[in-house]
């Protein structure tokens, strides 16, 4: 310990112009915050404990405030707690002995918690795939949620680069805003909106402007927001054209995903009396075991096949 302290003294002499010092302290002298906004799942904490056991020590330095003989952890609470659980009795810390008020301590805690970069899931997956050893994969400490997000990452995802962003701003009158809300609600109902940001090419942006320009000219309107509403109205009146997205002219499927019923019926809603008859027929078919009660949409397929079969037989 004497040699280690002398080495620290040499280092601290070089850090004399810095506001922090280094020290190796007993973990019994650590104090932890009463409240910590940063949380860690039990799975992640157990991984952290196991990793510290494997390393034999912390691989990053916590930040502490020294007051008297105690060191209050301002950054690295989970690491220090995991070190104690891993059986570590001494840790290297970066500390300040400058007098800090309670508010200053909280501000430092929040600022360090806020400094947290985001992973590029595509690059993270590439790095993950380079690890063959199962033990090292466990050591990497990725939780199930991160692994799931990583697997969903598109192969051709766009990495974080410096892009020239262009912002398009629309202003709406109250009634126009209501129509826009309804259009978004319709898109959400059909799975068209997710918590994802998509970046389009400048050529696609120009196509939107061209569509707006033509709409404004055709309807003799000047307001860009109004023209956007008109474009949405035109789309709603041509939803049956969406059929071409999943089937060709011969009816051969292009994919087997779910599609909006409006692409077939041209409407999202049906008359109540029709809905009542439809429900009775669906329930009866379920009771007879002709369709699965959990797949009631199969009713439409069965009835369509029966109708087309009867038509081909001349019925």
Quick structural overview:
This protein is 50% helix and 8% strand. By secondary structure, the protein is of the alpha/beta class.
CATH structural architecture of the largest domain = Alpha-Beta Complex
Shape: elongated
Q: What is the CATH domain class of the largest domain?
A: Alpha Beta
Q: Can you count the helices?
A: 13
Q: Helix share of residues?
A: 40-55%
Fourth-tier CATH superfamily name of the largest domain: Conserved hypothetical protein from pyrococcus furiosus pfu- 392566-001, ParB domain
The helix-strand sequence is HEEHEEHEHHHHHHHHHH
State the total count of DSSP E strands: 5
Please give the largest β-sheet: 5 strands, mixed
Structural class: alpha/beta
Regions with little confidence, pLDDT below 50 for 5+ residues: 154-161
How far the N terminus sits from the C terminus, by CA atoms, comes to 98 Å
Pfam families: ParB_N
Protein name: ParB-like nuclease domain-containing protein
InterPro entries: ParB/Sulfiredoxin_sf (IPR036086), ParB_N (IPR003115)
Domain ParB-like N-terminal: 25-114
What do these coordinates show?
Residues 25-114 form the ParB-like N-terminal domain. It is a single chain. By secondary structure, the protein is of the alpha/beta class. The chain folds into four domains: 2-114, Conserved hypothetical protein from pyrococcus furiosus pfu- 392566-001, ParB domain (Alpha-Beta Complex); 121-152, no CATH class; 174-237, no CATH class; 270-312. It is built from 13 helices and five strands. The chain has helices spanning 2-14, 42-55, 77-85, 102-114, 121-129, 134-140, 144-152, 174-189, 202-219, 224-236, 262-265, 272-287, 298-312, and strands at residues 21-26, 30-31, 63-67, 70-75, 90-96. It has a five-stranded mixed β-sheet with strand order 1-5-3-4-2. A hairpin with a 2-residue loop joins strand 3 and strand 4. Helix 2 packs across helix 3 (77-85), helix 8 runs parallel beside helix 10 (224-236) and helix 9 packs across helix 10. The longest helix is centred in the last third of the chain and has 18 residues, at 202-219. The chain is elongated.
């Amino acid at each position: 310990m004497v040699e280690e302290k002398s080495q620290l003294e040499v280092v601290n002499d070089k850090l004399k112009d810095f506001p922090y010092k280094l020290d190796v302290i007993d973990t019994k002298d650590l104090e932890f915050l009463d409240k910590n906004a940063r949380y860690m799942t039990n799975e992640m904490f157990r991984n952290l404990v196991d990793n510290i056991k494997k390393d034999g020590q912390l691989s990053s330095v916590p930040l502490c405030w020294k007051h008297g003989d105690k060191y209050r952890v301002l950054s690295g609470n989970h690491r220090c707690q995991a070190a104690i659980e891993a059986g570590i009795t001494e840790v290297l810390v970066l500390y300040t002995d400058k007098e800090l008020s309670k508010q200053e301590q909280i501000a430092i805690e929040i600022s360090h918690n806020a400094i947290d970069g985001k992973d590029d899931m595509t690059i993270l997956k590439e790095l993950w795939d380079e690890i063959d050893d199962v033990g090292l994969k466990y050591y990497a400490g990725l939780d199930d949620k991160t692994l799931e997000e990583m697997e969903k990452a598109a192969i051709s995802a766009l990495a974080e680069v410096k892009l020239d962003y262009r912002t398009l701003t629309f202003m709406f009158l109250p009634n126009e805003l209501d129509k826009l809300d309804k259009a978004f609600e319709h898109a959400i109902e059909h799975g068209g909106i997710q918590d994802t940001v998509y970046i389009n090419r400048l050529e696609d942006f120009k196509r939107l402007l061209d569509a707006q320009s033509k709409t404004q000219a055709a309807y003799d309107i000047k307001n860009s927001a109004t023209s956007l509403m008109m474009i949405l109205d035109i789309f709603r009146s041509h939803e049956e054209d969406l059929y071409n997205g999943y089937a060709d002219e011969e009816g051969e499927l292009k994919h087997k995903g779910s599609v909006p019923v409006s692409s077939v019926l041209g409407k999202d809603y049906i008359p109540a009396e029709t809905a009542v008859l439809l429900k009775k027929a669906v329930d009866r078919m379920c009771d007879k075991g002709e369709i699965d009660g959990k797949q009631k949409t199969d009713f439409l397929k069965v009835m369509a096949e029966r109708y087309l079969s009867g038509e081909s037989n001349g019925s």
